[in-house]
Amino acid sequence: MQRIGVFICWCGSNIAATVDVVKVAETIKNEPGVVFAANYQYMCSENGQQLIKQAIKEHNLTGIVVGACSPRMHEATFRKAAEEAGMNPYMVEIANIREHCSWIHKDMEETTEKAVVLVRTAIAKVKLNAPLMAGESPVIKRALVIGGGIAGIQAALDIADAGFEVDIVEKNATIGGRMAQLDKTFPTLDCSACILTPKMVDCAQHEKIDILSYSEVEEVKGFVGNFNVKIRRKARYVDESKCTGCKICMEKCPAKKGANEFNMGLDNRPAIHIPFAQAIPNVAVIDPEQCIKLKTGKCGICQKFCGVGAIDYEQKDTFVERQYGAIVVATGFKPIALDNFNEYGYADNKDVITSLELERLMNAAGPTGGVLLRPSDKQHPKVITFIQCVGSRDSSGCGKPYCSKICCMYTAKHAMLIREKYPDTEVHVFYIDVRTPGKNYDEFHRRAVEQYGVDYIKGMVGKVYNENGKLMVQGSNLIDNEQITIESDLVVLATAIEPEPSVRKIATLLTASIDTNNFLTESHAKLRPVESPTAGVYLAGVCQGPKDIPETVSQASACAAKVIGLLVKDKLKTNPCVAQPDENMCNGCGQCANVCPYGAITYVDKEFRLGGGKTEIRRVATVNPAVCQGCGACTVTCPSGAMDLKGFSSKQIMSEVEAICKM
Amino acid sequence: MQDVKTEKKEFTPNIVAFCCNWCSYAGADLAGSSRLSYPANVKIIRVPCSCRVNPMFVLKAFQQGADGVILCGCHPGDCHYVTGNYYTRRRMALLYSFLNYMGIEKARTRLEWVSAAEGQRFSAVMNDFVKTVTELGENKRLTDLRVKEGE
Predict the structure, then answer these.
(1) How many angstroms separate the CA atoms of A423 and A504, rounded?
(2) The predicted structure's pLDDT at residue B3
(3) Which CATH number covers residue B92?
(4) Are residues B48 and A632, on separate chains, in Cβ contact within 8 Å?
């Protein structure tokens, strides 16, 4: 005989304001099988849990239902409480009467009625629950970091410092990411390279860190603690172990017309190149699209001049397979393409540039050696107009609906640096709102206005056009309520940022959730902000949402803390809600193994008694509980209904359906 | 027990929603925490993956008097279990046309993709589905006609 206890939580007023919790508990008390029902203000509190534990012991409960918030929030809490009271933790069911009930419906009567149905449904299920035992799986004490920007670097260093092996997989020829392209960083105006490159060197020299540059993740199998990852090491046509980074090949290479990606295409680089001076690894790479030898078979100059014989035109992509316990995704961002924004004349005018291009134009290692010269005629611009929110906060569908978060600050930085270096320059900034929350951020922006005399104009720009070689920026000034046109020498667009497109593929490989803007979704916006809903996968940097360097570094360190917390464990408890075949019904047809995404199902020959002393040997399915992830695909595929899923059995779901329909 | 059904002024359908744990159930949670309302007659059953939903469950729901059944999973390509929602899509395409053949209006069943970040979409989908089913009226076709205990 089942003895069910029901606990209805008020959640302060979150549930109690729209659900008559007392009435729910009173109604439920009379349900068959229910021997105890209570309501309490905060079930998740110490006292609430105590109440549950006491009731389990006093009333000899066999199963409990907690009517509270989402099971995604406190299922683990209540399971633990039940376990402490001597009950199998899988004899606990949660009726979600907050997120799915009290928060979305207003009518008290209706909401109370729904809460009763939801609790009844959970009771119907819990009556069919069976005690389950979690298995154990070992943890591979090695972490993978995907992306070698500042987020990946920080996460890798922190994990490695705790004594665990870390691999950084970076798709470009060098680590460093976007931060390496920046000139100065707000709000302190540190030189970006000065603070980043020591960290890059630390990574290269750390005995626990292995940098797999020019590589991409190709395949991911397994689960938390036991990921098996296949990595493609793209052919760079240069032997990484031999190249000394002397750059003689770069001097001699005759194909020098490739757009220099590091300088945002503002100048050219040779086919064989090292992306930038402080690249890690400091090893050349050949661009096969551009290399004469690889395209036509004739040339081979770099090979002739290479003193160490590092050039290898025959090099092919290779694959390495490695095992990891945890994975950090730190794939970063790119500025959006401006194809949808013809009004700013970016494609037609060389002197309309993006902010990232301006970073390169102001950087000492950039195409102009740090002297601000406009791209068209290499003249010093006297009037510079910045346009903010280009593609950000744009719900028209052309751009991105979100705020890119970093643009207000970097535009203030650019304006300030230009006024500092070239006081004769006039700087205008068109803005919709200035958003500068953060430590010393608003002070920074105010300095730009008050100390450096940057002209901030509240209003949007309608058009940028070329008139007799001058860039005319036509916009509105909302404060003075007038249309204005500013004759400018250089126009800088604060372009929205979006997640690096490769994150899409990575999300699919990792089965990590992604939102409509291609940002990876965190497990809980406030309480589990660096964890993906997929166990063992962690998120750092802009792949999770727009953020600046300080935030990215904090998040990366938080990821590292989570990874270390996982890797110090020797064993993890596995999910016991796995598939289980009824061998008496299974006829070994093989369909379940066909649909299993994990290869958890195999077949064995087993001897069955037929009665009368006769036996037969039959092929039946068996499930490896350590590999099964409990999706249930096999349960529906099985033609004889032999396969079932523990914790979500067909009978349980059927009884839930019945409980809902029986109004 | 008094028959309460005759007293009801207007028809409110009873709707069973199957939501996968990783995307749609989380999407429903987000709809809740964002206070995006939808009618109270939608009741959610949590399943690990949309592919756990046996067509039998849908039939059972109709037999037990549900007026509409909606199944929500992760967007194609985003399934937590890699391929689960593809199986769901194929199975349900067959089931839904079968239901239609049996005389259950196609609009009483629906398969929707709702991600964990789409609280707004979850609420919109449910509002729309309830509206559609309300217009169709009560589902009588598959209701269990056997004499029930106590009647």
Answers:
(1) 45
(2) 47
(3) 3.40.50
(4) yes
